[in-house]
Write a structure and sequence with these properties.
heterotrimer, A alpha+beta, B alpha/beta, C alpha/beta, B: alpha/beta, seven-stranded mixed β-sheet, about 20% strand, C: alpha/beta, four-stranded mixed β-sheet, about 10% strand
């Protein structure tokens, strides 16, 4: 009954081999399901339930506990604006409002085209570079309301295949929590974290 | 069971108590007379410490600490304070928090009046809410299944229901969803809470969040009259309390006892009482006149029955009359019937089984019979028999608990998947009809892991007919094998229908006499009776609460017998396929309409009680039988269930001292007979020869399901529609070869029957096996032959 | 005041490639791990105990002692807590991104010392880049035979799995993290009976250590316990990382020695308050910590004991500085909202209490406050943390709920006037105030109060039995 591709199933087998017990693979498999369908569908949760040997209700119980498993259709670019205390002190609410205004998407929602979703999130661990914004979990620090608007317009216009944190930081960022001199070419390909074991990076490292 | 426990000294609110070491504070306090309020804690489930209502103060080396009484164990010298200012503050705070978002719609809530949240708000609450914000809102109530509704606004998130479904019943279909302040209990979309045990969550719910559809808005708790009794579907006879209003039984709730059900009930036992109030109940004797059954008075009916029986007796003697039934009534009913058959009719042809049971001596008198509680002490538990989840729900829960909570090694042998497989250390399947071949393999050492498991010191073997093709001999052979391999074996043979054991003990078997002794003069069993009726060597038949046409695995035998019978009298609650053509049908009282005793699958005798009158002129079986005997001029001298029980206690050493008074005042949870452990007949299971495995490509697995088209269930509107219906389940791998798709109409044919079924592709049925649930609406009987053909109907 | 950096030294000296295995090995990397495998397990545990290394995840418990509690049953597991999510904290991210091999070497030492053969690095889901860096480093270590079967040619096997979280602060709590790693909801477990040292991952003995804690281990072995503990005069040994954020001129991570004062940190290290503004308050140890104010706390030394004596903690090492233009009600609301959003929902007081507090604070900020509200907040807090004592007397399984009352204690002790003025003025007057609907984007709350105001009554006229609508 699977709707997963053989490549995805092979990836799932690799993930499961990393854990002593199969239910431990639940969280990475949920990301895999999101990558397969663009968000976490009911069919995706049923698939994961079979892999882990539990009921779909048990899968949904876990999936719904964590904010990053999106169970509604989510835009190609998920813009997450931190509004926790350190970012708030430096104007994060204005950044969020600017992003909402420019995209026309209130937080928690997705535009009609399925391009941009906006959310406000709790602390992203970028407090030294507040306010912080992530696009598909790639970080931009020191964002102003004006830069937030530019970011939205760029996403709409450029529609990058791969969302790269260094590139966005140089275009729309400001002060960072700490300096980082290594440029990364890889980045995120959808509204889920880019991570090699999940197969959600643009390319395999070293290739 | 009691084990040596060390006692320790603790103080509760300054008063010293000696309590078992390691006991949870909440239980130690309760047993010492101090009630600590709680919502999430439940004695039969693992503590989760979530509601925080049971906060108390204990002195620790680091000073006084506020802790939950449900998650901390007592230790010697512990000082517990359950009522000081800090504790009171904490308890009031928890209640205020719980009530903050509670809708307070108590006037329209089923739980109102028996609600722990109401009660504890009264006893421990702050008395007013300071919450002026907007309450949490959810759609009210949503169906979780066909039987259970959920009002999430009332829910206090105690996780009793979710823990029950995961820890106890093993079908985690309801779960906490989301988190923080928006946490809710729910199902996965389109995966309803279709658990056979869902009603327990309603009973467990400490608020009115989980609601029983059959009971919703039916009564206020203070208007209910209550009586304790034993459930009468489940062979373990779970302890229940019957709640009725204005002579109408409205619900059953489970009563916690160690011996059997731990307070749990299957939904069938919980809601299967609806037939009592069915408009189709028989309320008057029916007599066949001009081909029609017409209502007549009791005297008229009894006169006719007596005179017709008298005629047969005079012409051909008692041996020309047979009695089938008695397994759904009380021991008193069965005793009356047994005496009637032997003393009044003078016939040895009596049987409470429906040609679907193990041998009567094995069922009733096997040596080293296991008690249900022996499951908790076993090293290995072997279940080779029916899917307990379908046929023996209380045993299912107890075996599950033993394997899951107590870590017992579980071996399950069954032709297809069963509800216990996820907890089984070893699971073997066999093709229906191939049980003896598998047994031989095990004996040969082909399955060393099974051999090892069955060679443990303490083995409890739960054995029965897994499939009608097993026949009556496989289970006994399995028992014989386990007795050879295990250090110490205990055997629990299973039967169908609730009070078979009681009926056998009263002598309703061709080879047993009253009191678990061998019959003086062996008679015919149900199959032989039917064959003899068909051949004309038997003339008359008395059916008591029996529907052989539906219940015998080979319906043709029953049909032929009933057709051939010259005279048929039926005592029953309803008209059904087996008595529709009877000469006389006499209306009987049902469960909750009569007093008496019953004997469960382990030999435990318990009391059942009356809470409503029988409808119309319906009467208890024993009294109908007494009147027929009286009209035959051979009164049995039976005047009440209580005096019959006294007579049983006096006449049968097996039931020595087991009177109603004894059960009501001294042994509320019943007593296993014989009380002194000695019985006259001790049957030693023997290894028997069995059929060779059929070489057929497809074999037929016929087995019972919890919900079916049985006479009583047919008249329970909440449950009857939950039966699987006329389906034939096939492994998806077999489908292409047969040209079958999901939902295809297929003709299923054996040497003994044929009928049309809806095909269901089911991975839990192994390849090469066709699984057809027995006794379903519109389903033909297919007999016991495992060789089967399946053809798509165009 | 300043010390030579220890865990941040490599990244400071070699900013271009401190994350790669070549640089790591060229700067003494993996020497200690190789050496450790030649030592006895007891020697390593004793050395770590003697170093006085305290856990850097927030609880500040002796790392060596924690190891010595590990139950003897095997298999045992090591779980690296890289679920850094406490608002204000971003030090582990730097260690993960910029020196992941230092962490892996700490993992090898810890795993070997405790007979562990499988370690998990639980990285919060939003840390995609740090997780990639760690995974890359793990891959490099496997390639060189430093992880996997028979590492360094010894008979010792060690596997490391990098596991990505998915957005739940509570998974930083060690038992919640273990649940999460088992594929369950990230709900903290009961202690007793589920102490990770005895019944942790898969009910087996488990060590849970923070990233910074483990990153210190190669250095403790390299310099020896005596030298490590002598890095500072304070009783709290070694260096520690502080994440400085908010209204300071120079926010960032700083590796410091214990014992400097808060004044040193904020005015020297942090370069003072933005625009020369006045300092109003700071949160000394992550959002969970009770707040400090300059009049009382500026000259206290930054040590575990001094913070505890003043009713707070150093926690995760995050310092959030607020200047005189900061509205304390809004700041409190934002901190409380965090805990309300991140509550796992198990315990009634936390699940219901934090949300209630967030609603009341939002109401005060948006002009729907009542004069009874501060006392109500204090009393609600009292129901989560009895007596508002320090350390808290928790009514909950884990400290998340009691953490949410820290801002309320600050309002009660230092900013009562400011709260009362919010009631009197009908809302907030600080820059950036958002009237109606609260400071945060959220659904309109407190309609009972709002409608009362609409009818011309004051919020105060909404009585306590206000839920009878």
């Amino acid at each position: 009954m699977t709707h997963w591709s053989e490549a995805t199933r092979e990836r799932a087998r690799q993930i499961m081999s990393r854990y002593p017990e199969k239910r431990s693979a639940l969280m990475p498999l949920l990301y895999l399901a999101m990558a397969e369908d663009g968000y976490l569908t009911e069919a995706g949760m049923e698939e994961v339930a079979e892999w882990c040997g539990i009921t779909p209700a048990q899968v949904q119980s876990v999936a719904s506990f964590y904010t990053m498993y999106k169970r509604e259709p989510t835009g190609r670019y998920l813009v997450s604006c931190c509004t926790s205390i350190s970012c708030m002190l430096l104007g994060a609410d204005d950044v969020l409002h600017a992003v909402e205004d420019e995209s026309g998407v209130p937080h928690g929602e997705t535009d009609g085209e399925g391009l941009i979703s906006v959310e406000h999130v709790e602390c992203l661990g970028a407090c030294g570079g507040a306010p912080a914004v992530q696009v598909n979990y790639e970080l931009i620090e020191g964002v102003t309301p004006a830069k937030g608007r530019e970011l939205v317009n760029w996403l709409k216009r450029a529609r990058p295949e791969v969302v790269n944190g260094d590139e966005m930081q140089s275009l729309f960022g400001g002060r960072r929590s700490f300096e980082w001199a290594i440029a990364e070419e890889d980045g995120a390909i959808g509204p889920y974290p880019a991570f090699q074991p999940l197969g959600t990076m643009a390319r395999e490292p070293g290739k | 069971m009691t084990t040596e426990t060390n006692l320790v000294n603790i103080t509760i609110n300054g008063v010293e108590h000696r309590v078992p070491e390691g006991e949870l504070v909440i239980r130690a306090a309760q047993d010492s007379g101090t009630y600590i309020p709680r919502f999430c804690w439940h004695e039969r489930m693992e503590p989760v410490g979530m509601c925080r209502m049971c906060l108390v103060q204990v002195e620790t080396p680091r000073g006084p600490m506020i802790v939950t009484a449900c998650t901390n164990q007592v230790a010697d010298g512990m000082a517990v304070d359950t009522e000081n200012a800090e504790v009171k503050k904490a308890q009031e705070a928890v209640l205020e928090f719980l009530l903050a978002n509670h809708p307070l719609d108590c006037p329209v809530c089923d739980k109102g009046g028996e609600c722990p949240l109401q009660d504890q708000a009264l006893a421990y609450g702050p008395g007013e809410s300071r919450f002026v914000e907007i309450k949490r809102h959810f759609e009210k109530p949503i169906p979780l299944s066909d039987l259970v509704l959920l009002d999430r606004e009332r829910c206090v998130l105690c996780a009793r229901c979710t823990r029950f479904s995961e820890e106890i019943s093993g079908d985690p279909l309801i779960e906490f969803m989301d988190r923080a302040n928006t946490t809710e209990v729910n199902t996965f979309p389109d995966h309803p809470f279709a658990s056979y045990f869902s009603g327990n969550t309603v009973q467990l719910c400490p608020v009115g969040a989980l609601l029983a559809k059959p009971y919703r808005f039916r009564a206020r708790p203070w208007d209910l009259t209550r009586v304790e009794s034993s459930g009468l579907y489940d062979t373990a006879h779970p302890r229940v309390e019957i709640h009725a209003s204005q002579n109408e039984v409205l619900r059953l709730v489970g009563v916690d006892n160690d011996a059997t059900n731990h307070g749990w009930l299957s939904d069938k036992d919980r809601w299967g009482h609806e037939y009592l109030q069915s408009e189709h109940r028989l309320t008057s004797p029916l007599l066949r006149r001009d081909g029609e059954l017409v209502e007549v008075s009791w005297p008229e009916a009894l006169d006719i029955v007596a005179s017709r029986l008298q005629l047969v007796l005079e012409e051909d003697g008692g041996e020309s009359v047979a009695v089938i039934g008695g397994a759904n009534g009380t021991n008193e009913d069965a005793y009356a019937l047994s005496r009637f058959a032997r003393e009044v009719l003078g016939t040895p042809h009596v049987d409470a089984r429906m040609d679907d049971g193990l041998s009567a001596p094995f069922l009733a008198a096997t040596v080293d019979r296991a008690l249900i509680s022996d499951l908790d002490e076993a090293d290995t538990i072997l279940v080779w028999g029916p899917d307990l989840k379908e046929e023996h729900p209380t045993l299912y829960l107890r075996v599950r608990r033993a394997a899951q909570q107590l870590g017992k090694k579980l071996v399950v042998v069954h032709p297809r998947a069963t509800g216990l497989d996820d907890r089984a250390a070893i699971k073997l399947t066999y093709r229906p009809g191939g049980g003896f071949a598998l047994l031989e393999e095990i004996g040969d050492g082909t399955h060393p892991e099974v051999t090892a498991a069955l060679s443990a010191q303490g083995v409890v073997a739960v054995v029965g007919m897994a499939s009608v093709a097993d026949g009556p001999r496989l289970a006994e052979s399995v028992a014989a094998m386990v007795r050879r391999t295990a250090g110490s074996a205990r055997i629990l043979p299973l039967h169908h229908r609730s009070n078979v054991f009681g009926a056998l003990d009263m002598g309703l078997a061709p080879d047993l006499g009253p009191g678990r002794v061998a019959a003086d003069r062996p008679g015919k069993d149900t199959r032989q009776i039917m064959e003899a009726l068909s051949e004309g060597t038997l003339r008359a038949l008395l059916l008591v609460g029996a529907d052989p046409r539906r219940d015998m695995p080979d319906a043709r035998v029953a049909e032929d017998g009933l057709y051939g019978a010259e005279y048929v009298v039926s005592i029953d609650l309803f008209l059904h396929d087996s008595n529709r053509d009877a000469d006389v049908v006499l209306p009987a009282a049902g469960f909750a309409e009569k007093e008496g005793t019953v004997t469960n699958v382990e030999g435990r005798v318990q009391k059942v009680n009356r809470i409503r009158p029988a409808p119309g002129a319906a009467r208890p079986d024993w009294s109908i039988i007494e009147d027929i005997a009286g009209h035959l001029g051979r009164s049995l001298g039976l005047s009440s269930a209580e005096t019959i029980a006294k007579e049983i206690a006096e006449n049968l050493p097996l039931y020595d001292g087991v009177t109603h008074d004894f059960l009501e005042w001294e042994a509320r949870d019943g007593v296993v007979v014989p009380r002194n452990g000695r019985q006259a007949l001790e049957h030693i299971p023997v290894g028997l020869e069995g059929p060779q495995a059929p070489g057929a490509q497809l074999t037929l697995h016929r087995a019972r399901t919890l919900y079916d088209d049985g006479v009583r269930l047919r008249h329970c509107r909440s449950l009857h529609s939950l039966a699987p219906g006329a389906v034939a389940k096939l492994n998806p791998a077999d489908a292409p070869g047969l040209g079958v798709n999901e939902g295809s109409a297929v003709m299923v044919t054996t040497s003994q029957g044929e009928g049309e079924f809806t095909a269901v592709l089911d991975p839990s049925t192994p390849p090469g096996v066709v699984y057809v649930p027995m006794n379903q609406v519109g389903a033909a009987s297919l007999g016991t032959d495992p060789v089967v053909r399946v053809k798509v109907v165009n | 005041m300043s010390v030579a950096p220890v865990v941040t030294r490599r990244m400071t000296e070699h900013p271009a490639d401190s994350h790669g295995i070549e640089r790591y090995e060229a700067t003494g990397g993996y020497v200690q791990a190789k050496r450790a495998i030649g030592l006895t397990r007891d020697d390593i545990v004793e050395e770590v105990k003697a170093s006085g290394l305290l856990g850097r995840g927030g609880a500040a418990f002796s790392a060596g002692l924690k190891w010595s509690f590990l139950a003897p049953e095997r298999p045992a597991y090591l779980v690296v807590n890289a679920d850094e999510s406490e608002p204000g904290t971003f030090k582990d991210r730097q260690l993960l991104e910029r020196d992941p091999h230092q962490l892996i070497e700490g993992i090898i030492i810890t795993a070997f010392a405790n007979e562990v053969h499988h370690a998990f690095v639980y990285v919060r889901g939003e840390y995609a880049k740090p997780a990639r860096r760690v995974q890359r480093a793990v891959d490099e270590a496997y390639e060189r035979g430093y992880l996997g079967a028979e590492i360094f040619g010894s008979g010792y096997d060690l596997d490391v799995t990098v596991h990505l979280g998915a957005g739940a602060y509570i998974c930083g709590e060690e038992t919640a993290l273990i649940n999460s790693l088992e594929g369950l909801r990230g709900e903290p477990r009961l202690k007793p009976p589920y102490f990770p040292a005895a019944k942790g991952l898969y009910m087996k003995p488990t060590i849970v250590n923070n990233v910074e804690t483990l990153s210190n281990l190669p250095h403790i072995l390299a310099m020896g316990a005596a030298k490590y503990s002598g890095l500072t005069d304070s009783e709290d040994t070694g260096t520690f990382m502080m994440s400085l954020s908010g209204h300071v001129e120079k926010p960032g991570n700083y590796e410091l020695a214990h014992g400097i004062t808060w004044r040193d940190l904020i005015y020297d290290v942090g370069g003072g308050i933005r625009g020369g503004n006045g300092l109003k308050a700071w949160i000394p140890g992550g959002a969970s910590a009770p707040w400090f104010v300059p009049e009382q706390h500026l000259d206290l030394p930054i040590t575990k004991e001094a913070a505890a004596a003043a009713g707070s903690m150093l926690g995760s090492g995050a310092v959030i500085v607020m200047d005189e233009d900061t509205c304390m009600v809004r700041a409190a609301e934002r901190v409380v909202r965090f805990f309300s959003d991140e509550s796992c929902g198990q315990c009634t007081p936390c699940r219901e209490g934090t949300t209630w507090m967030e609603m009341v604070l939002g109401r005060l900020e948006s002009g729907l406050g009542r004069s009874v509200d501060l006392d109500l907040l204090i009393d609600v807090s009292d129901g989560i943390s009895i007596g508002l004592a320090w350390p808290p007397k928790m009514t909950t399984i884990c400290p998340l709920g009691p953490s949410a009352v820290s801002p309320i204690i600050a309002l009660r002790d230092y900013f009562r006037d400011e709260v009362e003025e919010h009631v009197a003025r009908g809302g907030c007057w600080f820059p950036g105030a958002v009237v109606s609907g609260g400071a945060t984007p959220q659904t309109p709350r407190s309609l009972h109060v709002a409608s009362a105001v609409g009818e011309g009554r004051s919020p105060d006229q909404v009585a306590i039995e206000g839920d009878r609508t």
